[in-house]
Protein 1
Amino acid sequence: MAKIDTRCVHAGYKPGKGEPRQVPIVQSTTFKYETSDQMAKLFDLEESGYFYTRLQNPTVDVTAAQINDLEGGVGAILTSSGQAANLFAVINIAGAGDHIIAANNIYGGTFNLLGVTLPKFGIDITFLKADATDQEIEAAIRPNTKLIFGETLSNPGVEVFDIERWAAVAHKNGLPLIVDNTFATPVLCRPFEWGADIVTHSTTKYIDGHGVSVGGALVDSGNFPWDKYPDRFPGLTTPDESYHGLTYTKKFGKAAYIVKATTHLMRDLGSTQSPQNAFYLHLGLQTLHLRIRRHSQSALKVAQWLKARPEVAWVQYPGLEGDASHALAAKYLPEGCSGVLCFGLKGGRAFDNRFLDALKLTTIETHVADCHTCVLHPASHTHRQLSDEQLKAAGIAPDLIRFSVGLEDPEDIIADLEQALNEAKK
Ligand SMILES: *Cc1c(COP(=O)(O)O)cnc(C)c1O
C-alpha cells in the first residue's frame, strides 16, 4: 500500500481515460433507471447503485472512500456535521434502555449530546476520567452497556487518550471502542491500529482545514465481532423488518455496522453531507499531510514560547516535555500533536479579556483547526452552558484559553502573542 502522504493525494478517486482530474461535484438529488425492476433491486439492497443523494452520492462517496482509506477501515459515510457523526456512531448500536460510557474530557458539544440529549431518549451514560484505571472502567460496565467513547486528542484540553488500553478493557467485556479522531486526523494517528473499532470525525476541522464547510465522518474498522454478542447488538444480528427481514451481519459481514448506519440512520434521520461540501473536504484532504505536520511544528514552538513567559500560569500541549500527556503522545502521536494548545494567564479574567482583545493576527472564533490562527475562551464562549462544577468535571479550567495555531509563519504568531501580552499589562 502506498504511504499515507500519497494516499492523501490519491485515495478515493481514480479518474479513467478522458475523465476530469479533479473529482466532479455531482449536484443532483436523484439518478435515473431504465426499468422498474432495476429500481426495486436497489430498494431491497440486492444491488448497489445511486438513487437518492440522502443515501448516497458519487462526490460524497469519493470523499468517504478517501477518509476510509486513510483510517484503514472497511467503509465510511459522511454526515452533515461532526455532531451528526457522533450521534450516528452511538445510536447505530444503542437505544432506549441502554447504557454507554465516555471519557469526561470530550468536546463540549459531544458532552452535551451524550450527557443531556441522549438520556432524554433513554440512553444512560457514565462519564469516566480519561485516566480511569482498568478496574474503574470495568466497574462502570453494566449488562446493558453498548459502547465506550473517547477522543484521541480531547477538545479543548488536548489530552491524549490511551486508545490501546481502553480498547483492551472494552474488548475484554464485549464492547466496541469509538474514538473521535478529529484533532489528530488519520495522518497523525490511526486509532484502528491501536484497537479502536469505530472512528468519528468532525471534518469541519483539519480535514477541511480552511474553515469552509461543516461536516462529519463515521468510519468502521470492520473488526468488531458483533456476531459474538448477538443479544447485545440485536440491531445488527437479527432481521431488520424495514428491509424485508435482512440481517446486517449475515448480509454485509464486516461492513454490517457501516451499512446499517447508511441504510437505517441516513435513511431515517437524513443528516447527509452535500456534494459541494464533500468536494471541499476532498480538496482539503489532498494537502492534509502537509498542513497537519506544519500545524503541529508551529504549535510546539508557540507552546514552548508561552511556557517561558512570566505572564503565563500554565501551558497544556502533549508535545511539550513534562506535559501530562507527553508519554502517551510519544506512543500515539510521534509525528506531532496538532495545532491546538491550551494555556492560562496569571492576571485573572479581566487580564484575559484585555489580552484577547489586543490580539491582531489571531482572531476570536468559535473554531479551531484551520489555516488561520484563532483563539477561544471556553468558559466564556463554547462551554458557557456548563457550571463551574461541570467545567471542572470536564477538566476545563475557568482560565483556559484554547489557541489554534494556523499556517502563518510561527514567528508572526508569537509576535502577535507578545504584543497582546504587553498590551494587556498596560
Ligand atoms: C468540533 C468537534 C465536534 C463537533 O463537530 P461539528 O462539525 O462542529 O458538528 C465533535 N468532536 C470534536 C472533537 C470536535 O472538535
Protein 2
Amino acid sequence: MATAILCAIRVTTAQQNLAVNWSSNTYGPDGPWNAITINVGGNQNSTDIESEQVSIDLLVGSYYASYIPSSSACRAYGPQCGNGGVWDPDTIPIKQPPPNIWDAPSFINITGTVYPGAVTIGTAGKQQTVYDVDLASIDTFSVKYPNEVTAAPELGFFALNSGMDKEIRALSDAKGSEDPWIVAGSLYNQFIIPSYSYGLQIGSAALNYSGSLVLGGYDKGRIIGPYTSCAGYMTTLLDITMDVETGPSPFSFGNASKLLTNVLGQPSSLSVKPDPMPPGLHLPAQTCSNLAQKLPVYYDSTTNYYLWNTSDPSYEQIINSPAYLGFQFTPAPGDEANVTIKVPFKLLNLTLTSPVVTRPVQYFPCIPFDRTPADQWRLGRAFLQAAFLGYNTHTNTMWLAQAPGPGVANEGLGLEPQDIANSATTLEVYSDKTLFADSWAGHWTATKATEASNSTSSAPADPTSTTTTNEHQPGISGGAIGGAVVGVVAGIAIIAAIIFCLVRKKSKQSTLQQSSDEGLEDTEIGPERGFRKQQSTSEGYTFLEMPTDHEVEELPNHAESKELPTSMRVYELESPLNTRR
Ligand SMILES: *[C@@H]1O[C@H](CO)[C@@H](O)[C@H](O)[C@H]1NC(C)=O
Ligand SMILES: *[C@@H]1O[C@H](CO)[C@@H](O)[C@H](O)[C@H]1NC(C)=O
Ligand SMILES: *[C@@H]1O[C@H](CO)[C@@H](O)[C@H](O)[C@H]1NC(C)=O
Ligand SMILES: *[C@@H]1O[C@H](CO)[C@@H](O)[C@H](O)[C@H]1NC(C)=O
Ligand SMILES: *[C@@H]1O[C@H](CO)[C@@H](O)[C@H](O)[C@H]1NC(C)=O
Ligand SMILES: *[C@@H]1O[C@H](CO)[C@@H](O)[C@H](O)[C@H]1NC(C)=O
Ligand SMILES: *[C@@H]1O[C@H](CO)[C@@H](O)[C@H](O)[C@H]1NC(C)=O
C-alpha cells in the first residue's frame, strides 16, 4: 500500500515546466550571443550543495552531453577561455567512451571526460537540483575559424536533446542506459517536468533581448503561428526570399525570391537542421553568394566571412528598415500554407571580435558550408534569433516558428510559460498577423517617407485572428474526447494511479501497445514498433531517420514511470485543444 500511495503522489504531483535563467553576459567572437546560467557541482551527499556549486554560463545546443570548460583545459589558451566559468569535477569519471565532438559548421573540436555532477537549474522563482547528471568536462577544445585562427571557445555548451544522428546520443531519460543522462531527461524522469521536451528562443544579445528556454514546456510569448512541425530534427527549406514587412522596400529590386540554390547553383529546396550550436547560416556557397549580391556585403578573403560594407549608404538603411530575409518551410502536416520565418536584417548585423579579428567588424552570417554527405545544412544561432524551436522527445516532434521581436518589454509578446504534455504533437500559439511588425516597431525605421512609417502602425489587421490553435493531429482532437471527460479524468486520476501502480507489472506490455497506438497516430510506425519514418513532405529529398534503436529502448522506461498519464489520457488535461475554449 505504501508503494501505491507513493506512486499516486508521484503521478499526481504537479509536474510543471521549468524556465531557465539567462546570463546578463553576452559572448562572441561571432555574436554577440546570449547564454544560459546554471549551477554545477556537488552530489547527493552534499550537506551544502550551494557552496559546492559554481555558476556557469553555457551556450544552448550540444551533441551528446553538456560540455563544460575545466581550468586545466583553459590553461593552454588565452584569457578568453573560460569567460563563461570553469568547473573542475572532483567525482570519479564514468566509464564511457570519451565523447569527442568535431562539428564542422561550428568549427569546433572538443574532447572531454564524462563525470557525474549535480546541476541546479531554473529561475529565481523556481529552481531544481538534479543529481548525477552526466557532464562532460572539457579536456581539450579548440575552434578553428574560417580564417584559420585557432582559439578556445569562451564557454561550453548545454545539451537539450538537440541530437539526431546515431552518434548523438542524447535521447535517454533513464539513468543507466548507454546514453548520457542529461538535464532535461533527468528532470522528466524525476517527475519534475511533464515531458522530455523544450522550447527555445535565443533572443538577440545585440538588442538586449534575452533568450527563453523552458524545459518541459515553452513560452507562448515567443512564438507567432502558424508553425511548421515534423518528425525528427530535419525540416525542408523551400526557398529564401528578401522582402519588407511594412512600408516601401529599401531594395532597388523591391523583393527577391529563388535565392536558395543547391551546390550546383540550381534553385532547389534543401533538407536543413535548425541547430543552436553552430553560429551562422551554413548553406551552399552559391546561396550565400546569391544573398550577398543583393546586399551591401562582400566576401572578405582575409577573414573568409561576408562583411557588411558599412560605408555603403544602403547598409544602415537596410539594417534599420523592416526588411527581412524570409525562410520558407513546408507546412506542418495537415496545413496547406508554407511557413515563412522572417529574420530582420537588424539581427544579421553581427560582429566579429578578437581573436578572429583584431578590430570589431560587422559580418553577414551566411557561411558557405562545404558539407560532407554525412553532415547536414544548418540554420544556426543567427537564424534562431528570429525563430522558435521546440522539440518533444516522446513524440519525436520538432516545432519551428516565427519568433516575435523584442516587443515593448524585451520579452517578445510577454512571458507566458506553458507545459508541453508528454504526448504533445501540437502547441497553442498566437497567430495574429500583426504581432510580428508590432513586436519590432521600436527597432524599425521605415524607408524614406514619413507617410510610409505611419503605415507601419496600421498594418493590415486580420479580423479572424486572436489566439488560435494549430491542430495538426485530428486523431486526438477535442471531438474525440469531450470537455466533460477531461473533468472526470482529473477526478479519477488519484484512484487510477493506485490501481495502476498495483497492476503495473502485469499490464506493462498492453499499456505499451496502447500508448503507442494512441499517442502517435499520425506517424508511421514500422511493424516492429518504434521504427518511425519521417513524414516526407517534399519530393526527392532523403531524410535522415530517427535513431530507431533509441525509440525501442526508451519505451519500456516510459512504461515504468509514465504510462499511466498516457493510457488514462490524463494528458488531455494539459492539452490546449481541450482546456481552452
Ligand atoms: C553517498 O553516500 C553513500 C553512503 O555513504 C555512498 O554509498 C554513495 O556512494 C555516496 N554518493 C556519492 C555520489 O558520493
Ligand atoms: C581534435 O582534437 C584532438 C585532440 O586535440 C586531435 O587528436 C584530433 O586530431 C582533432 N580532430 C580534428 C578533426 O581536428
Ligand atoms: C537564477 O537567477 C536568480 C536571480 O539572479 C538567482 O537568484 C538564482 O540563483 C539563479 N539560479 C540559477 C540556477 O542560476
Ligand atoms: C514583389 O514585387 C512584385 C513587383 O514589384 C509584386 O508584384 C509582388 O507582390 C511582390 N511580392 C511580395 C511577396 O511582396
Ligand atoms: C562599399 O561601398 C562604397 C560606396 O557604395 C563603395 O565605393 C565601395 O567600393 C564598397 N566597398 C566594397 C569593399 O565593396
Ligand atoms: C550593427 O551592429 C553594431 C554592433 O552592435 C552597431 O554598433 C551598429 O550600430 C549596427 N548597425 C546598424 C546600422 O544598426
Ligand atoms: C510553397 O512553396 C513552394 C516553393 O516555393 C511553392 O511551389 C508552392 O506553391 C508554395 N505553396 C503554397 C501553398 O504557397
